[in-house]
């Protein structure tokens, strides 16, 4: 039952992160109002909270669930998935810093700042596509070393 609960929580959290990231992808566009910029900062806080929860639940799943740490720690696709998630997290830092600045500002962000944040979000979305590919390969035993 623990395995099912952790797997379910992990998947729901991943879908949540993707939902927030895709919302940012849609909303962060040139011409963004100051009020919208403040809402984006709130959305981005959820993005961070969900990412933290995915890490905690994911490692709990890898350690305590059915397959156990030996299975995951000796799988290249597991480490590729971790590296991809970490890279997505690092790429989310510049937009997060911009969103915090925008929230504190009295004026709407300029189009150049929006385009820069949007570029990072585009890369994050592209890298996010790799996560389920790595997960599927890992779950089927590919990548064992």
Please specify the SSE layout and strand pairing.
Elements lengths: L1 H26 L6 H31 L3 H6 L2 H16 L1 H12 L6 H18 L1 H10 L6
Helix pairs in contact: 1-2, 1-6, 2-5, 4-6, 4-7
Report on the architecture of this protein.
- The protein has 145 residues and is mainly alpha-helical.
- The chain has one domain.
- The protein is 82% helix and 0% strand.
- The protein has seven helices and no strands.
- The longest helix has 31 residues, at 34-64.
- It is elongated and about 50 Å long.
Q: How many helices in DSSP terms?
A: 7
Radius of gyration: 17 Å
Strand count: 0
- Broad structural category: mainly alpha
Low-confidence stretches: none
Query: What gross morphology would you assign?
Result: elongated
Strand content is under 5%
The N- and C-terminal alpha carbons lie at a distance of 28 Å
Estimate the mean pLDDT confidence: 96
What's the domain count? 1
Output the helix-strand order: HHHHHHH
Helix content: over 70%
Largest sheet: none
């Amino acid at each position: 039952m623990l395995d099912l609960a952790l797997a379910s929580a992990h998947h729901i959290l991943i879908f949540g992160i993707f939902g927030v990231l895709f919302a940012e992808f849609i909303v962060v566009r040139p011409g963004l109002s100051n009020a919208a910029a403040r809402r984006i900062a709130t959305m981005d806080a959820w993005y961070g909270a969900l990412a933290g929860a995915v890490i905690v639940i994911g490692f709990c799943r890898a350690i305590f669930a059915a397959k156990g740490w030996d299975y995951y720690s000796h799988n290249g696709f597991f480490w590729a998935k971790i590296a991809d998630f970490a890279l997505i997290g690092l790429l989310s830092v510049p937009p997060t810093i911009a969103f915090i600045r925008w929230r504190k500002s009295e004026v709407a962000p300029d189009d150049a700042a929006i385009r820069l944040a949007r570029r990072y979000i585009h890369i994050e979305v592209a890298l996010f596509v790799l996560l389920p590919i790595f997960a599927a390969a890992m779950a089927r035993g590919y990548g064992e070393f």
